Amino acid sequence: MSPENDEIVDPCMLKIKPQIKLPDGTTSVISHVGKVNLKNGLSLKDVLVVPSFKFSLLSVPKLTEDDQCVVSFYPKFCVVQDLKNKKVKGLGKKKAGLYHLVNVPLEEVDSVFTTLVTATLVYE
User: Could you say which of 2, 44, 46, 61 has the lowest number of CB atoms within 10 Å?
Assistant: First the structure.
């Protein structure tokens, strides 16, 4: 994941700069590691910052383990739910083959989800 620098909480600059292979086959340096607190209440730990990569990628297995949640994927959207009480914690919309997590406050997730699902069902 390569978030904006102001989104990183407690960034840890790496002394040894490991490299990561990007989707286009090139390699780039991981500059530091930190935590990102999303507006929907989800916390992403050990986020890798790759300054030359313009996208933020998320590890679904890491998210489900760290935040004790389950992610359900549908053809046009995905839903992040609390593992115990099944409350919706986040949602994503599919764009260009990738699921984009909607970063809105938790109290707005249900209304955004309803709108997203309704729009998806109406336009199919």
Answer: 61
